[in-house]
Amino acid sequence: MNLVVLGAGESGVGAAILGKQKGYNVFVSDKGEITKKYKKVLLNNEIPFEEGTHSESKIFQADVVMKSPGIPDKVAVIQELIERKIPVISEIEFASKYTKGIIVGITGSNGKTTTTLLVNHILKKANLNVGMGGNIGASFAQQVAENNFDIHVLELSSFQLDGIVNFAPHIAIITNITPDHLDRYNNKFENYINSKFRITENQTENDFLIYDADDEVITNWLKNNKVKATLLPFSLGKELEEGVFLKDNNIQIKYKTEDIIMGITTLALKGKHNTKNAMAAAMTATLLKVRKDTIRESLEDFEGAEHRLESVLKINGVQYINDSKATNVNATFYALDSMKTPTVWIVGGVDKGNDYLDLMPLVREKVKAIICLGVDNHKIVQTFNNVVDLIVETAGAEEAVKVAYKIAEKGDAVLLSPACASFDLFESYEDRGNQFKQAVREL
Is 108 annotated among the ligand-binding residues? Predict the structure, then answer.
């Protein structure tokens, strides 16, 4: 059997290793340059590869093609494979065939990384044999090849879910759905919504779907579509017959029995969205028979994701916060919503068709100045120039931080929460966040 892997990043190289282990003839093809780290792994594993081109003669000999999530379906080579009826799948589809472990799959427009980290943290604290992967950390396929985990906690992007056939997590979580990546979905929000819900399409009556009952996009989809899995909603606003909700500021779980998990004041992560992430994680751990005390302790000592509302330093009474992972408007909404002091907001980058009007009430209430950090900022300036007195355009993290330092006064916060992708000025949102932190440390 010939396995062709398109894209030699984390998921591609992981799938190649697993494929070789399972007896496939593996060939890896990357249209770009393969990074040193991954090239070394391919050479060490004696896996043939090419870079800078896609040799169609080799690719079209495949019995199955594993496509990296970054490659859109509309590129010519993928279209040709589909026409030739050669199956094109994602790494999670390929790897899931080879594990007997329980899969917890977590998707959503925002909060999926934090929820994945939370679930992993709780299960590790309960001494369960757990591996974390997918869109975060080590590739799922490589973990299946090299470890024997009882539970896999996977962060799943819509792109990964687009390439599934039989993949079915035992526990699926949808944190929320807001417009994102619409450039990959013909600018149709419903295509993106359907893509997220693929996480549950192969689930059975013995599986579970945990979701935000306060999210209209999710609840409307569920009204109009049949789901086999047991539905376990979570909500900040309403008491539920089954699921997780707030009662007297306590997180309460109702499933088979009724349990108070903990008060929200003791949660390590603050903000309404983090209460929801904690609810989803607590429900998951409960289904996996983790003790209540362990869940509570884990939610109290969890340290959070890097680049997600990460406190950097306090300088002259001004708190600097790195929220570089906020690559869409909804993520920035959460960030601004959680600010308790006057805020100098650093925003901008590659706009994915953003509508900034959703942020207007929060900007009016909390933002004293805006610092633009992007090549093209006209949309941000246009939206907010009547609301915020001071808007400054900058061309890099260092300049943005220096300007913020001049503007901010004691008791203020400086928040990097870009609401945009980072590729105009940075390699990635991590690079953007690291440059911001470095600039703050050098003040």
Answer: yes
| pTM attached to this predicted model | 0.81
Residue 7 annotated as lining a ligand binding site: no
Residue 210 parent element (H or E):
strand 208-212
Annotated binding residue at 110? yes
Q: What is the pLDDT of residues 1-43, one digit of tens each?
A: 999 999 999 999 999 999 999 999 999 999 999 999 999 999 9
Q: Is 187 annotated as a binding residue?
A: no
Domain boundary assignment for the chain: 2-89, 93-301, 310-441
Question: What's at 22, amino acid-wise?
Answer: K
What CATH architecture does domain 93-301 belong to? 3-Layer(aba) Sandwich (3.40)
Cβ contacts of residue 38 below 8 Å, gap of 6+? 8, 9, 10, 12, 13
Question: Binding site annotation covers 112?
Answer: yes
Q: Enumerate the H helices of 22-168 as residue ranges.
A: 36-44, 56-59, 76-83, 91-96, 112-125, 140-146, 158-162
- For the domain 310-441, what is the CATH superfamily, name and number? Mur ligase, C-terminal domain (3.90.190.20)
Q: Residue 414, SS3?
A: strand
Question: Is 111 among the annotated ligand-binding positions?
Answer: yes
**What average pLDDT does the chain have?**
94
Closest to 69 measured CA to CA, from 6, 146, 140: 6
The amino acid sitting at 188 is K
Which numeric CATH code is attached to 2-89? 3.40.50.720
Cβ proximity of 347 and 324 under 8 Å? no
End-to-end CA distance of the chain: 58
Any binding-site annotation on 109? Answer: yes
With vertex at residue 30, the alpha carbon angle to CA 29 and CA 35, rounded to the nearest 5 degrees, is 125
